[in-house]
Amino acid sequence: MEEVKPRISVYYAQNASVVTLADEKILDDEDIKALEDSIMPLIDSAVNLVIDFSNVCFLSSAVLGLLIRISKRINENKGRLKLCCISPRIYDIFKITRLDEIFEIYPDVKKAMQTLK
Amino acid sequence: MTSKACTHEKIVSNGAISELRRICAKILCHTQNLEYSDDDLFAIQLAIEEAIVNAVKHGNKQDPARDVIIEYDLTPEKVDIRVTDQGRGFDPDSLEDPRLGDNIYKTDGRGVLLIRSYMDSVEYNELGNSVRMTKFNSKPR
User: Burial level of B108, CB count in 10 A (0-12/13-18/19+)?
Assistant: First the structure.
């Protein structure tokens, strides 16, 4: 039986789902689709989402597109999206693309959650 | 051709992204052996990734019959990589800036920006189906 690799881990805290991305590198269309399939159902059932990037050391611009799709869905559900634990190199990608002005980015989960109170 | 100081290779790939990523990993391995910094390696990997995805998706329109050619020249001083697809080409200067206005909410269109931001020199050929990217070693020697 083929082993299915979990793309995310999830826990619920206060009024948000906290999603930790499992993969170090997120590149492949298949990986991104799998990630989207894992995350979107969470948005339908819970309004606020915190995405923890602490395991991620590399991502392509396709991941940024996924984050925008997630953000749009959360906005439609009148929720809030927070990103956290982004490494300096990955954060530079957000800065270069000016997506640091679109997404709310925090150094850790605790600070991200504090803004959801 | 490989020596301790430089590596040059030209690879014609069948255009499958997985194969192109294997070539990218090989380039990074050689570059790491030339003692480029981790920041340089990150930049090179990101630029190659964006270039090969553009070549397959936009250049070759995901046609499995079309090849992607990767040619690279690695020295302790700089990394030169050329990615060529078999598509009709495009005008890179006609691309909308993904940072401006409503473009920032688009889910794609950032690849060329990232390539230009992370590499020291980026040149497209006249047709627009080939991009040459150069990264200089940031470590003082």
Answer: middle
Q: Which residue from B56, B57, B116, B66 is spatially nearest to B92, judged by alpha carbons?
A: B116
0.90 exceeded by pTM: yes
Residue A4 has pLDDT above 80, yes or no: no
Q: Which residues contact B4 (CB under 8 A, 6 or more apart)?
A: none
Domain boundaries, chain B: 7-136
Residue numbers of A between 34 and 63 with CB closer than 8 Å to B: 58, 60-62
pLDDT in tens, A12-55: 988 899 999 999 999 888 899 999 999 999 887 668 999 999 99
This complex has an ipTM of 0.93
* Cα distance between residue B81 and residue B79, in whole Å: 7
Domain definitions of chain A by residue range? 8-109
Two tokens at A57?
């050391």
* Chain B residue closest in CA terms to A63: B107
Residue range A8-109 forms a domain whose CATH class is alpha beta
Average pLDDT of the segment spanning B47-71 = 96
Taking CB atoms and an 8 Å cutoff, what residues of chain B touch A101?
104
So what's the architecture of B7-136 in CATH?
2-Layer Sandwich (3.30)
Instruction: Using an 8 Å CB-CB cutoff, list chain B residues near A97.
Output: 98-99, 104, 110, 113-114
Task: Give the strand pairing for B7-13 and A104-106.
Answer: unpaired
Confidence of residue A3 (pLDDT cuts 50, 70, 90): low
Asked if A98's CB is within 8 angstroms of B49's CB, the reply is no
Cα–Cα distance between A102 and B99 in angstroms, integer? 11
